[in-house]
Amino acid sequence: MKKVAALAFSLILFFLATSDAFAADIKLEPGNFLIQSTAGQTIREAVTIRNLSPTSKNLKLTWEGYSLPQGEFGSREGLKQHSINFAALSQTNLELQPFEVTSAEIEFKIPKAASPADYYGALTVLDQDSKAQTDFTIRLLGKIEEKVDITSLSINNSSLSISIANDGNQTVDIKADIKIQNLFGQVSAQKTTKQRLKAAQQKNLSLEHENLLPGYYQAKVSLEYGSGRTKSSFHSFWIHPEFFLFVGLLVFIVVLRVILAKRKAHK
Asked: Buried-most residue among 74, 76, 77, 109 (CB within 10 A)?
């Protein structure tokens, strides 16, 4: 019995040691930076690097510019315009002893011609088993441009999908209210969601409506973002229009037969 318990305990420890929760051997602090500055300035920041494992680590430090998953940006030119491409690392290779803590310095030489906007990038630390990342946002002060657009809206028999894009020059918080109403103004489906979009980023939102009865509906998308700006979009659509075409055809046939029957009776 004791052997079985010991084996079970060993399996539990093995599972925990190999799970994602225990897989992060390297930790960076802080996890993200928001730095406010102006064009032409030089900024230096330090990131703390912790080796959480009982083994030595040979680390590679790299700087990555602004990147987003495929489908979350409109154009690569937009990513390039908001990328931190003026960062220099104090070192690109680092050896850490077990449980050692050190730091890496990053120098940002902001170009004098840089426009007021948010710029994004990340410090990435890699070894054979681990990857850690600290995200940076450098906000150059000046004129703020808040612009959010609804770039597409599509509907089918089960869901409504929209795409929203941040065409402004800095990160913006968005509250989106998506609503579907029937012909009489009754709300058939509704969803409210909050999103944070970086400059040049876009996201897809959806509202499920699988149980709508056949009929005419209107979709309304309302956005509230930034310093209280708003934007709305409307879209009308039919659910199972073939049903109404079939009913209309039946009514037409019935009416036609009634008319023909009356004419025949008069003769």
From this structure: 74
Residue whose C-alpha is closest to residue 132's, from 82, 94, 78? 94
Taking only the tens place, the pLDDT of each residue in 80-137 is 999 999 999 999 999 999 999 999 999 999 999 999 999 999 999 998 877 899 999 9
Element of type H or E holding 177: strand 172-182
Complete DSSP assignment for 107-132: EEE--TTPPSSEEEEEEEEE-SS-EE
Per-residue model confidence as pLDDT tens digits over 54-81: 999 999 999 999 999 988 888 889 899 9
Q: How many CB atoms lie within 10 A of CB 187?
A: 10
Strand pairing category for 32-37 and 131-140? parallel
Distance CA 40, CA 42 (A): 7
Domains of the chain: 2-140 (2.60.40.10), 148-243 (2.60.40.2550)
DSSP H or E run through 243: helix 241-266
Token couple for 23: 């897989």
Q: In degrees, to the nearest 5, what angle opens at C-alpha 43 toward C-alphas 40 and 45?
A: 160
Is residue 198 within 8 Å of 171, Cβ to Cβ?
A: yes
Q: Is the pTM of this model over 0.85?
A: no
